[in-house]
Write a structure and sequence with these properties.
mainly alpha, 74 residues, 92% helix, 2 helices
Amino acid sequence: MRETESKPGWRGLYERFTLWTGTKLIGLLVGAMVVILALLGYLTIRLHRQHLESSALVSAERISDVIRRNTTFI
């Protein structure tokens, strides 16, 4: 029954290698996902900020145009 306690030879090395490789692969995939999602989040926030700034400028131009028309009308 000693064989069930430890796995000598190539079989034990293969199982340890596959466990280590699987762990490294999962770590690499999680790390890549974190980097990609962080980059996409940054780009989304940047694009949203640009759209908000442009809509604020358009709104300010409209208000100033209304004020200009009303002051010249009187």
